[in-house]
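Title: Comparing notes on inverse folding

I've been comparing how different people in this forum approach sequence design from structure. To keep things fair, I'm posting one structure and asking everyone to reply with a full sequence. Here's the target:
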């Protein structure tokens, strides 16, 4: 029995409440971190950028986690790390502000720590942008190679008949047949893992695992080997009879 769907008014209320809570939390955190930046020696006219940097990386990292989720946990490891780091800095900054609020200036090494945050965030967010761009370009290239015309490069020829057969047989095949098809597409047509996965209806990691193992023997090949074994054994007595006749002569 399927689970009942959540009423739309419940979803709308939850979304509206989430937006209001997020706006209130952002405003309080923004004001607190701005004052902390001023107490740490940053000019008041530029102090408002410090909370934008700290809380902004949380937003960007969260969006990056969602965008990179289809690429697997390894791709989302770095955005998750930035998300936790940004949240830690934001929470710590808000807590420290309560301790230094009674002082005109932040004591100890706090000003140095506040000043070190912007360049570190710049370095981290630049690397995150490179990761997102690289994944986007790779996905675009795979999509174009899968939907575009067959390549005419001599090193990676793509057989149109093989592509048609793979597209027609992508559903309902046993794993053994699909493994043999994956090896055939790689050996004969030189397709990439993404192309093979798209035609066989499996994940690229599954194709990679199949290609790292030897191709399973087909049913026809096993029958051929079974038929040839008795024929070879039956030929040996004839050879011995010929040898006896030769010796008698």
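Reply #1:
Here's my take.
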């Amino acid at each position: 029995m399927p689970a009942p769907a959540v009423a739309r008014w419940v979803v709308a209320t939850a979304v509206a409440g989430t937006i209001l809570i997020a706006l209130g939390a952002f405003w309080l955190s923004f004001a607190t971190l701005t004052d902390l930046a001023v107490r740490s020696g940053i000019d008041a006219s530029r102090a408002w950028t410090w909370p934008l940097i700290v809380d902004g990386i949380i937003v960007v990292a969260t969006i990056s986690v969602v965008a990179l989720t289809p690429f697997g946990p390894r791709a989302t490891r770095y955005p998750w790390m930035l998300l936790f780091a940004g949240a830690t800095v934001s929470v710590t900054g808000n807590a420290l502000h309560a301790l230094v609020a009674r002082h005109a200036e932040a004591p100890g090494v706090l000003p140095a720590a506040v000043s070190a945050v912007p360049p570190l965030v710049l370095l981290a967010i630049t690397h995150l942008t490179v990761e997102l761009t690289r994944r986007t370009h790779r996905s675009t290239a795979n999509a174009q190679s899968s939907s575009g015309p067959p390549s005419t490069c001599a090193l990676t020829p793509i057989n149109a008949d093989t592509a048609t057969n793979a597209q027609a047989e992508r559903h309902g095949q046993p794993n053994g047949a699909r493994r043999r098809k994956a090896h055939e597409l790689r050996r004969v047509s030189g397709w990439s893992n993404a192309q093979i996965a798209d035609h066989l209806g499996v994940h690229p990691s599954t194709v990679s695992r199949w290609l790292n193992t030897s191709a399973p023997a087909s049913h026809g090949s096993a029958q051929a080997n079974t038929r040839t074994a008795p024929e070879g054994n039956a030929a040996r007595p004839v050879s011995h009879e010929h040898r006896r006749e030769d010796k008698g002569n």
